[in-house]
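Long-time lurker. I teach an intro course on protein structure, and each term I like to show students one example going from raw sequence to a predicted 3D structure in token notation. This year I'd like something fresh instead of my usual example. Would anyone be willing to generate the tokens for the chain below so I can use it in lecture? Attribution to the forum is fine with me.
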Amino acid sequence: MHCPFCRYPDSRVVDSRETDDGAAIRRRRSCPECERRFTTLETASLAIIKRSGATEPFSRSKVIDGVRKACSGRPVDEDALARLGQQVEETVRASGAAEIPAHEVGMAILEPLSELDEVAYIRFASVYRNFTSLDDFVIEVAAMRERETAPDPADSGAIPATTALN
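-- Reply from a regular --
Happy to contribute to a lecture. Here you go:
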């Protein structure tokens, strides 16, 4: 690591700490040449492959900005947007791949957005899935209603253990 003050090509790590819940490492460094100290922040890089084939670094703020547009005029606060952005980033990073297609980022946004605000979900899905007619909206709303009324898989109908013992 080059010293940012004198550009000496080496530095010594004085201290290392995890930050952002282990997503990054903060290192305090010392330059042996000018003896000044500086801090670096190391994160694992994650690239997004756009439809054009170009790649760009993953940006949580871009995710939040896109969702914020879908939530325009809806009762969604900034904290909820920040949590959604973090959840999307965690989902995308959990894939373990260094490069992710942009389509997968969009898919990672849809589920938490549907739980956050149904209207914002429809807005986002209409752009993301390129709705071309009113029928596309009707089909998506019908699918949402079906998911809403579907039985919970965790609720298998079994008698709880405490009831069975009585």
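Some talking points for your students: DSSP finds six helices and six strands in the chain. The helical segments are 60-70, 78-94, 102-116, 118-128, 134-149, 161-165.
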